[in-house]
Write a structure and sequence with these properties.
2 copies of one chain form a homodimer. Chain A is an all-alpha fold and 318 residues long. Chain A contains 16 helices and 2 strands. In chain A, helix 3 runs antiparallel to helix 4, helix 3 crosses helix 8 and helix 9 runs antiparallel to helix 15.
Amino acid sequence: MWYSTITKELNELESRILNVIHSENSELDEMCKYVITAGGKRFRPAVCILSYLACGGQDVRRAIDLGAAYEIVHSASLIHDDINDKSEIRRGRRTLHKEYTVSKAIVAGDYMMARGFQLLGVTSKEIVDIIVEAASRMSESEFIQKDLEHIQNVTEDDYYRIVRGKTSKLIEACAKSGAYLACASNEELDAIGNFSRGIGMAHQIIDDTLDIIGNFHNTGKNVGLDILEGKPTLPIIVAMNDSHYGSSVAEIFTKDNPTEVDVKNALDIIKKTSAVKICRKKASEEVENAIKSIGSIKDSPYKESLILLARYVASRDR
Amino acid sequence: MWYSTITKELNELESRILNVIHSENSELDEMCKYVITAGGKRFRPAVCILSYLACGGQDVRRAIDLGAAYEIVHSASLIHDDINDKSEIRRGRRTLHKEYTVSKAIVAGDYMMARGFQLLGVTSKEIVDIIVEAASRMSESEFIQKDLEHIQNVTEDDYYRIVRGKTSKLIEACAKSGAYLACASNEELDAIGNFSRGIGMAHQIIDDTLDIIGNFHNTGKNVGLDILEGKPTLPIIVAMNDSHYGSSVAEIFTKDNPTEVDVKNALDIIKKTSAVKICRKKASEEVENAIKSIGSIKDSPYKESLILLARYVASRDR
């Protein structure tokens, strides 16, 4: 498994995260734990820790702290995303604002964001810059995406632009700051940067594909949310360009308030196109290019784990 | 005027803030500017810059950067507060989520928070700790306050505990980190800490008093919001303890959904009690004690400005 080289580190990460988010207020504490223990895949900290070790880092506790910070900031951003997207289920459980209230969830997100930044602040100006740049780009991409909701003539290039800001940038930040902490050379930093942008892109493409073909049992969330919200994802864009079914998909996608029946119909039609196949292929290509880009990094079990992680990202069904 | 010693610095602060919050996304940029240019009093950065100068700091640009970070973080927190409080008006203008949308306002708040932390990250671990501790305490206090909404037996001690976390802590952070940046002695840090906690408390007491007796022209917001939201402020708590009118105030305050007529009645009744007078007196006492606590700081025009600022806080009517 991709994580077998860092099992111990990932365990330590869990206690570090719980330790950092602890609040004296019992309800706030409970809410943070609710989010953190929902069982995320810990992708981002894993990328951070593995990049650190693959670049020769010697004091892994520093990378664990950094990884914890990323997981906390990422989880905080999901709390606010779920409010914005009106999502009711994540990882098989009610989203935080549904389990508590929107007000409390906004505050809890702010609290976790502050705790995450606190952990980052102990590193270096360069690392703070890397993550804040990523956090700012995430916000900007939310705006770009909102402007393209329910729009028919959105292009694949629009999608890639959104994903670079929304997803890739933070995964790149995890990897690059891990490498930076390990005193990686500029060549290594570039290699790790290219690698992580690629897996960030693949990760999002697969996420968006699972919104079409996934099921609740595997993904822990409802499918078809992107159709419902009018979010222009790659499988939807590809399907809208299908010569036979494209116009039927577009007709539903451009509705401001599609019904549940609309969503189900759209999913059925998209599955008749080659959109899912094209997306899976695209994700694999991204990952294989990503793997090529770390050719210059010295061979090690950690580099091998990064490669396994990358291939897992492109092939996962949950 | 309290700000006459730092007029130039406050001007530089404005351009620094605009520079930091700038976003490539034009709508996000516009939203941040909307919030920042609404004409806040720049209390927090002023406290930071004056504390720095009063403690002998020589490179004021560093204090300006720090002050800008505080104003940005504070403004970001107001965006989310306004969503949570369903406030429609602030500083005479529609609140951000009313002018745009709740979703966009949540994202804009996150963006500004990240930019604020970025500016802080260049300082030192100690300063990051000071502000993040304050930001975390702000979140925790929101929870404590929510649990005491519309509750009759809330005490003045509950109020002070909430305000210490909600308001005082951030103003203390502004002052202490300014002093810290100026390499202040521990004695000076303690003095500045006590001083700023006092003016933070006075500032909130007056804010809450203006929610009873203010008017839109002066405060730029509607009055009676705390009654409407059931927030236990000092004037309300004092009025609920009035031997003659207390029960009438409590009857309205404990309603889960008071009407506009209820709110108007409550304001009229509270004005018949000595609550406002008691609150003003309490704010003055806090400020005079605060001023005493900086006796050990070397005399300077900046210390004089801090004292003027403190007295202004306790006497302001807007």
